[in-house]
Amino acid sequence: MKHLFKIIALTLLFSANPVHASEPVKFSGALYQKFQHDRCLSCHQFNSRRSNGRAYTSHRNRYLCDKCHTARITGLTAGEWMAPPGSRMDYTGHNARDACLLIKANSGAGNREAKLLEHLIHDVRIHWALEGGMTPMGQFPTVPGGYKAWLKDVQAWARDGMLCE
Asked: What pTM was estimated for this model as a whole?
C-alpha cells in the first residue's frame, strides 16, 4: 500500500508540473513549417527582390491589393488586404532560428512579442490564409490544420517563451 501511495504521489507531481512532462515548445517545432507554406510566403515575399516577389513580377504596389482582392472574394474590408512593408519580412531561405529572429525583430517598435502575437492570433489576413484562402484566381490550398491548429501552436510557443530554436 505504501508503494502505491508513492506511485500516485510521483504521478501527480510529474503530471501537475509541465516542465517535467516535455521540452518547451520552440519555433522550429511548432511554427517554422507553417511559416514556409505558400499562403504565408505569397504575402511575406511580396516586396522582396531577393525572392522575386510579386511586386517585381505580376503586381506593382502593396496598396492596390484590395482592387482585386475585394471584400466579396476575401471577406475583408477595403484597406485590410495589404502585403507586409518592404522586404524586411521575407524569411525565405532562413533556417528556423534566423527566420524567428527576423520575424521578432521586425514586428515593430515597442513590445515586439506582443505585436507579433497580436498579428499571429488576431489579424484578419492570418484568419483568411488559415481558413478560407479565396483569391481572384480561385481557392488555393490553405495551411494544414487551419486556424484551430495554428492557434494551439502559437499559444504553446508563446506560453513557453517564444523560443527561436
From this structure: 0.73
